[in-house]
């Protein structure tokens, strides 16, 4: 079957390029992979200090019956993956411009390569999250396997957005800066350090729930802390409707602009 062979070849190519991309990020660094964890860990420490010690939540704050540190990390782990995939994927065509100029190369896989490359670090952070959960006395439960599902949700959402931003940045180089700013604001528009229940204005809480990453962040907490399955959540249909619409739009724009990439680069 030609189509099946082409699909297998594309999957293999994405895997090899993602692996090469990950190794390239470690090249020439004395501490290698360590640097990929320094910034996220520092971010966790800063947020924890601000929202506990400085924020006056007490020395042993709890959320949903578990230590606040675990509750917060459940939201930060998927956010780290989303932001890494979004920032790296946006510049993928500029970074691999020598491949874009090759007529025979399937450049539509480059955004997927970046999203896949970011999965490596995310997998390690997910393992750390489970370790922290055990350390906090949270016993393992079957719902933990949903992390795989919510990781897939994050990947599809990020890929849909990256399909558009990576195509747009070729013609509008300021897109990279706009994405960086959006990521900085986005973490505060997602219930990572706070709960929507803490927002005094109901209409603001409702608007924030429209953020697709709200579904993912809360999904990690449902999986690790609450034991709630994704099919029990009414937001599941909304999330996939928005995500698939974003993916369709991003893919449509990528295909529409693709014939002009080589000329501009």
Keywords for this entry:
globular, single chain, mainly alpha, two-stranded antiparallel sheet, 265 residues
| DSSP summary: helix tally | 12
Which H/E pattern describes the elements?
Answer: HHEEHHHHHHHHHH
Share of residues in strands: under 5%
How many extended strands? 2
What do the pLDDT scores average to? 84
Structural class of the secondary elements?
Answer: mainly alpha
What distance lies between the first and last C-alpha atoms, to the nearest angstrom? 35 Å
- Percent of residues in helices comes to over 70%
Our count of domains comes out at 1
Poorly predicted runs are none
Sketch the major β-sheet.
Answer: 2 strands, antiparallel
User: What is the oligomer described by this structure?
Assistant: single chain
Q: Which word captures the global form?
A: globular
Radius of gyration: 19 Å
Kindly report the spatial arrangement of strands forming the biggest sheet: 1-2
């Amino acid at each position: 079957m030609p189509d099946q062979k082409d699909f297998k070849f594309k999957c293999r190519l994405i895997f090899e390029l993602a692996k090469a991309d990950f190794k390239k990020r470690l090249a020439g660094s004395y501490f290698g992979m360590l640097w990929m964890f320094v910034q996220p860990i520092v971010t966790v420490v800063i947020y924890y200090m601000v929202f506990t010690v400085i924020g006056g939540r007490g020395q042993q704050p709890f959320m949903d019956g578990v230590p606040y540190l675990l509750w917060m990390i459940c939201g930060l782990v998927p956010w780290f993956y989303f932001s890494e995939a979004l920032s790296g994927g946006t510049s993928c065509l500029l970074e691999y411009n020598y491949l874009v100029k090759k007529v025979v190369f399937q450049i539509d896989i480059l955004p997927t390569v970046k999203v896949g490359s970011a999965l490596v670090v995310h997998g390690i952070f997910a393992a750390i999250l489970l370790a922290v959960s055990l350390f906090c006395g949270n016993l393992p439960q079957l719902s933990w396997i949903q992390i795989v599902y919510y990781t897939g949700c994050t990947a599809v959402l990020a890929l849909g957005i990256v399909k558009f931003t990576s195509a747009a940045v070729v013609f509008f180089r300021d897109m990279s800066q706009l994405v960086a700013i959006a990521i900085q604001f986005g973490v505060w528009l997602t219930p990572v350090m706070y709960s929507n229940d803490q927002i005094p204005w109901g209409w603001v809480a409702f608007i924030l729930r429209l953020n697709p990453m709200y579904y993912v962040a809360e999904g990690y907490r449902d999986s690790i802390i609450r034991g709630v399955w994704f099919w029990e959540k009414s937001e599941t249909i909304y999330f996939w409707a928005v995500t698939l619409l974003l993916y369709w739009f991003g893919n449509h724009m990528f295909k529409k602009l693709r014939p002009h990439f080589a000329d501009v680069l």
